[in-house]
Amino acid sequence: MIKILFVCHGNICRSPMAEFVMKDLVRKNGYQDNFLIESKATSTEELGNTPHYGTKNKLHNEGIPIESHQASQMNQSDYDNYDYIIGMDKWNYKNILRITGGDPENKVSLLLSFAGSSRDIADPWYTGNFDITYEDIREGCEALLNNIILE
User: Fold this and answer.
1) Binning pLDDT at 50, 70 and 90, where does residue 151 land?
2) In this structure, what CATH number is given to the domain that contains residue 65?
3) Which of 42, 68, 103, 118 has the greatest CB tally within 10 Å of its CB?
4) Beta strand spans in the chain (E)
5) CA distance linking residue 122 with residue 124, whole number of Å
6) Count of structural domains, the chain
7) Are 55 and 70 a contacting pair, CB within 8 Å?
8) Which residues are the active-site residues?
């Protein structure tokens, strides 16, 4: 079982979008029994909240199923529980390392790094543009899945 944790600031926009995009990709490729995919926040600001309406609308428009989800915060033990811990931007990356106390097993990455990019995934909470965020997340998730399959 390959365990992936997507992480953003509040766990209502980018990381749940990545979670549901990745679940859809693995399902469409017949790998759903081989993956555990979840998402969490680095902050406590949105704990218990459901995904942002912009995330829900974009996923609905793309035909991607949304499961029940409430924002939760990652903790140090998540480092041992996941094979991949994927941040959406450099700020998330720094906060993930702060929470985990480091990355001795090289589990922590930025999502777009799998697509060969150092770009951050823009936070639609601030930009209001869920389309661009979705395109970047889709690109990163496809590259991540290809990377895992080719390992």
Assistant:
1) low
2) 3.40.50.2300
3) 42
4) 2-8, 35-41, 84-87, 108-110
5) 6
6) 1
7) no
8) 8, 14, 123
